[in-house]
Specification:
6-stranded mixed sheet, 6 strands
Length: about 550
């Protein structure tokens, strides 16, 4: 029976003034699609109690936080005292709007400083607002921490990029015999490890899950697949996928995307069709994954077949992300003018990312004329992005047009735009080593540079030749080589060769796209030292082994 018909029956029978009857109806109406009915019912109540206000505040906290806060203010003006259920609902609403509204002092004033339910809500609230120190203070001062307390603080750390602190807190929790982690906490931890890209930590958490006999649920299994993929171990992702008793569309999409960014493009496409055979309908995340696979693998016909199926087979309208994948597909293949036409035919205004994708393709294929056109478009829509100036200057450098290149770099200076430095990270035990291009801040930089210089000379003998065209300035050849020598990924790989005496895989994370010179250098290193090297850059993973890369030099 609908809320309207129930209310009509109450009026007809004369029960509409009875608070008990209205309260039951208010509970039924307290959902987004019936919120206006809930407000109407509430206004019929002669003396609403805290419980009644809570129903309304909770209902609006999710979809209309400003209304929820307004109701709370009205409640207090009417002299109704909030309880330990009211404040968590209001804190959730305030977190959505990132405002405190003096709630912490009210918690203390009302004597809820020892209430675990309220304290947990405070931790989540401060975490949502980015106030990690204040969340930790509340957590430390909570007299009776339960699972939600620990889980909220760990989530606070993870959501604010304090991943190692989250893992340390989880280890501290293990010393508390009364608290056992649940699936939600483990998924949060896997999210932290996914951001760090630390495979050893990921395997440690996976072993913990197996040791504690957690069921490999859809959510947990999918989180493990994503974690292993981001930690450069796609084979472990496949293994988890195969072991899962039940999968959903998110599970399939996670593995398709993982295979795509690891260079296993045909396997990603095969998995996409296998997913369809198993009765799953792809969503936009799935389409993104398989289109990235087609782009990275140069599968042009397959890419168009998948793209056209979005509308023709599933009656869905492609979004900007799918158009962006197609621009990337055409651009990588050198079909630059076809990509340019596709951008101009898009049903919505192209985003700066789409123009930037096309500019990158113009640089790779040394098409100066089109690069200038695309550069003009980017100046209109996003004139302050450092990467656009660098890309345009690179295409001028590749054509030996040093005057034009200097003009672009001068324009950067005039607009007070600085080039974002490239850096690379490598984990050694529990320590993350950071290398910045051309920077001497690392304590062993002199030792690394000396070794790197000798390594480059050794590789020259077997065919390595620095790609000098990417150097930003018109300088002597010797100085160009010097500029290339100290790119961050070269420093990281040299450090790993110095420190890792066994044959372990070298894993490096880089914040920007790997350059073609470093790509060539690392291919030669993998062959000369018989080492597997994995570089995770901004776009994908490069698996180097025996002088080859998983991208097949198509990136």
């Amino acid at each position: 029976m609908s809320t309207n018909s129930t209310l009509a029956r109450l009026i007809k029978t004369g029960h509409h003034n009875r608070t008990k009857s209205l309260r039951r109806l208010l509970l039924l109406a307290a959902e987004p699609k019936s919120s206006h009915h809930a407000l109407s019912l509430f206004q019929l109540m002669p003396y609403p109690r805290t419980f009644d206000w809570n129903i309304l505040i909770r209902a609006h906290a999710h979809f209309s936080p400003s209304t929820s806060i307004s109701l709370f203010s009205t409640m207090r003006l009417n002299g109704v005292i909030p309880d330990h259920f009211t404040l968590p609902f209001v804190l959730k609403a305030c977190a959505s709007l990132r405002i405190e509204k003096g709630l912490h002092s009210l918690v203390l004033k009302l004597g809820f400083c020892n209430d675990t339910f309220v304290q947990n809500a405070m931790i989540s609230f401060y975490g949502s607002c980015g106030s990690v120190d204040r969340a930790l203070k509340v957590f430390d001062e909570s007299p009776a921490k339960d699972l939600v307390s620990w889980s909220s603080m760990i989530a606070c750390y993870v959501n604010n990029a304090f991943e190692y602190e989250a893992l340390a807190l989880f280890q501290k929790m293990q010393l508390t015999d009364s608290i056992k982690p649940d699936e939600i906490m483990l998924i949060t931890l896997l999210s932290a490890i996914r951001s760090l890209g630390d495979l050893e930590l990921g395997k440690w958490v996976h072993k913990f899950i197996e040791r504690k006999a957690f069921e490999l649920s859809v959510r947990l299994g999918t989180a493990l697949i994503e974690m292993y993929s981001r930690c450069a171990s796609i084979d472990d992702s496949i293994k988890v996928f195969d072991e899962m008793p039940v999968r959903n569309i998110f599970t399939w999409s996670a593995l398709i995307n993982g295979l795509a960014v690891h260079g296993r493009t045909r396997k990603a496409v095969e998995l996409f069709y296998k997913m369809k055979e198993n009765g799953f309908q792809p969503d936009f995340v799935t389409f993104n994954g398989v289109l990235v696979a087609c782009s990275h693998g140069g599968l042009i016909e397959e890419g168009f077949r998948v793209f056209n199926s979005i509308k023709n087979e599933y009656n869905m309208e492609p979004k900007l992300e799918q158009y962006g994948c197609m621009v990337d597909l055409l651009g990588r293949a050198g079909l630059l003018y076809e990509a340019f036409e596709l951008v101009n035919r898009m049903p919505a205004d192209p985003s700066p990312i789409i123009w930037r994708t096309l500019l990158g393709a113009c640089v790779n294929h040394k098409n100066l004329l089109l690069a200038e056109k695309v550069g003009e478009k980017l100046q209109e829509v996003d004139p302050s992005h450092d990467g656009d100036y660098v890309l345009l200057s690179n295409v001028y450098g590749g054509k030996d047009k040093w005057v034009e290149k200097e003009r672009v770099l001068n324009l950067m200076g005039e607009n007070r735009i600085s080039k974002r430095p490239g850096y690379s990270l490598i984990t050694m035990g529990s320590v993350v080593e950071k290398f910045i291009a051309g920077d001497d801040s690392h304590p062993q930089s002199e030792e690394i540079k000396t070794f790197l210089a000798s390594l480059i000379e050794r590789l020259r003998v077997v065919g390595y030749s620095p790609v000098k065209s990417i150097v930003l300035f018109d300088v002597e050849e010797e100085e160009k080589e010097h500029n290339l020598m100290y790119h961050s990924e070269k420093m990281a790989v040299a450090f790993a060769l110095l420190k890792f005496k066994d044959n372990r895989t070298i894993r490096v994370m880089k914040n920007i796209r790997i350059c073609c010179d470093c790509h060539s250098f690392i291919k030669h290193v993998s062959n000369a030292f018989n080492r597997e090297i994995i570089i995770r850059d901004r776009n994908r993973f490069h698996h180097f082994s025996k002088g080859s890369c998983s991208c097949r030099d198509y990136w």
